Amino acid sequence: MNQDTICAIATAPGGAIGIIRVSGPDAIAITGRLFTPASGKPLAERAAYTLTFGQILSPAGEVVDEVLVSLFRAPHSYTGEDSVEISCHGSAYILQQVMQLLVGQGCRAAGPGEYTQRAFLNGKMDLSQAEAVADLISSSNQASHRLALSQLKGHVRTALETLRERLLRLT
Q: Is the whole model's pTM more than 0.70, yes or no?
């Protein structure tokens, strides 16, 4: 099990919206130290699968951005861990500022594919599904997209399990 909390920019900079994902045992606590909900109710006291409007503040109390925070509690998240997604404005500057604040609070910048690796290690997907995520991201046409999506939905695993059962009955 992973003991560290990771963060990463999940969208390309420059769009209207930018999303930063945070996952790990301290995801909610770390985000909660930077995020001030408009309603005043702390992030840690909110229910899973909720969106909360508020502000990300610097340690000096300056507003970095107005954001929406999505909350996912383990094991019901992509990685199987406590996770938060911060939806902010897509400026590269804002995204980097929020990332720096998260790292300053104890997050580690995630490596490429680390979220999917954690999902695999936490039993949220099998190896063929984890590989399908990379294929889906790199798909460049309808055929490769459909194949990757089918694999992600577990069709390859199901076919292999059926074949395995048939082989076991032959012996």
A: yes
